[in-house]
Design brief:
Layout: H1 2-21, E1 35-40, E2 43-48, E3 56-57, E4 63-67, E5 78-80, E6 91-93, E7 119-120, E8 133-145, E9 149-153, E10 160-166, E11 174-180, H2 183-187, E12 207-208, E13 222-225, H3 227-235, H4 242-251, H5 253-258, E14 260-270, E15 289-294, E16 296-299, E17 308-311, E18 314-317, E19 323-324, E20 330-331, H6 363-368, E21 395-397, E22 401-403, E23 408-409, E24 415-416, H7 440-456
Parallel strand pairs: 11-12
Antiparallel strand pairs: 1-2, 3-16, 4-8, 5-6, 7-15, 8-14, 8-16, 9-13, 9-15, 10-11, 10-14, 17-18, 19-20, 21-22, 23-24
């Protein structure tokens, strides 16, 4: 009897230990379901959750624009020399021949082809006038970045470059990061790396020299804007603590906006010169060539959609929660019973849907939310339909109000109570429900029983290690 009891308690203890030590990496960050059917005292009903589309390769959906428009090589045809060997001049660019053309579309085609395909600019034939190129990537949609932006160069990485972003469809621009072989000389900025950033300086714009070395480092072809390293400042080196990151994104608008774009612009200011003086007698050695650009992200849908469709050359969210618009940024016409609000990542792991509710709210509800100013129509009362059901464990009382758990408030128990408290929902648990006082005695009793049994059974000690 004692042996079976000890085994049972040991198994329970192991489960408790594993639950206490469990990490919540990627699974916590999916938010891939907008609603699910659940059984309640009132029967089968819907449980609404915050949701977002899966991350994807966003280069499939962009429009690329070059400035100046005639900067691509091949018109007229031109012969180029290798940067490391001025006498190796066997690279020809001819826009009229498919095999020799290097149009901008080749920055986004399938990688791994042999020979490598790439876009190429004209040579620096107007030296000493700067060889300037703007490459603009436009989505006509707000995008949330989820991984590093990576550019792969085939002609040596540029000695001076700026990566810029727009949040208003290209009407205004702000720098993301500066790149140079000498940051002080090029931009009068002290050189830094992403490792120099902290949680408090994450939004700082830096100049880095890590990606601008000359052609001596021939195999170093990539230039990065490090998204994941910035995520790691909150989520940890391996992004295990996604709860912390999502909590910060939810409560700090500037942080979320930092990773949100509608357009990207690559400003190429000076090509690779091989860390030597420019050879004015052989300017065909100097040009830009990009074989690949990677931009990983998702449509911004304000946590009201889990899919995004590309139709008629335009991205748009497939909105849930009775929202509408390209970004699910407003309530549907008949569902304006309260002001639209974005979904929330908190409380983790399901978040808060903040669904739009019907405009024809009954009189009892109207008294509680008089600011809505809803006109008299056919009345709907709490629990009459799935969109007016109490959320987050709230209980319907006489079809007129919701009795909310202590952690929630609002008409339908839709708001985490911590949002209205001093400091918001930024506590160390990032929205995770703490142990309630009612649950502590049972847990303490279980632990006392476990401790007593394990002390009597020496063979059970390894379970504690």
């Amino acid at each position: 009897m004692r042996f079976h009891l000890a085994l049972t308690l040991q198994a329970l203890w192991t489960g408790v230990c594993q639950a206490a030590m469990q990490h919540y990496p990627a699974a916590w960050g999916h938010y891939d379901v907008c609603k699910s059917q659940v059984y309640s005292e009132e029967g089968l009903t819907w449980d609404y959750m915050a949701c977002q589309p899966e991350a994807a390769d966003m280069t499939q959906y962009l429009k690329v624009t070059l400035d100046p428009p005639n900067i691509t090589c091949g018109d007229p045809p031109e012969t180029y020399c290798a940067l490391e060997n001025p006498y190796m001049c066997n690279n020809e660019c001819d826009a009229t021949t498919d095999e020799l053309a290097h149009p901008p579309e080749l920055m986004f085609d399938t990688e791994g082809r042999n020979p490598t395909t790439f876009w190429q600019s004209t040579s620096w034939k107007k030296y000493p006038k700067a060889l300037l190129v703007n490459i603009t990537l436009s989505w006509n949609k707000t995008i949330e970045l989820t991984d590093d932006i990576v550019l792969t160069f085939e002609s040596g990485r540029p000695e001076q470059m700026v990566l810029e972003k727009s949040l208003d469809y290209g009407r205004s621009w702000q720098p993301y990061q500066f790149y140079a072989t000498d940051c002080l000389d090029a931009f009068t900025m002290e050189p830094k790396t992403v490792q120099d950033l902290t949680q408090h300086t994450l939004l700082d714009i830096i100049c880095t020299e890590d990606y601008s070395r000359g052609y001596v480092w021939k195999n170093d072809k990539t230039v990065r804007f490090e998204i994941k390293d910035r995520f790691a400042l909150f989520a940890g080196p391996r992004l295990h603590n996604m709860a912390s990151l999502y909590g910060q994104l939810d409560t700090t608008k500037n942080l979320r906006d930092f990773f949100t774009i509608t357009d990207l612009r690559v400003r190429l200011l000076r090509p690779a010169t091989g860390a030597t003086m420019v050879d004015e007698n052989n300017l065909s050695r100097y040009f830009y060539a990009i074989s690949d650009i990677k931009v990983q992200g998702r449509c911004k849908c304000n946590l009201h959609a889990n899919s995004c469709v590309y139709d008629k050359e335009k991205l748009s969210c497939e909105c849930e929660h009775n929202t509408t618009g390209p970004d699910c940024g407003r309530c549907k016409k008949s569902y304006q019973g309260r002001a639209w609000s974005a979904g929330s990542y908190l409380p983790i792991p399901k978040g808060t849907a903040n669904t739009c509710i019907p405009s024809n709210i009954g009189p009892v509800i109207r008294q509680n939310v008089s600011s809505l100013g809803v006109a008299n129509r056919k009345e709907a009362r709490v629990c009459d339909n799935e969109l007016l059901r109490c959320q987050n464990g709230g209980v319907c009382v006489n079809n007129v109000r919701c009795s909310c758990p202590s952690d929630y408030s609002g008409l339908l128990c839709e708001n985490p109570r911590c949002e209205s408290e001093l400091g918001g929902c930024r506590g160390p648990d990032s929205g995770q429900a703490p142990l309630t006082p009612a649950s502590l005695p049972g847990l303490l009793l279980l632990l006392l029983l476990l401790g007593s049994a394990l002390l009597r059974e020496a063979s059970c000690w390894p379970a504690l290690l």
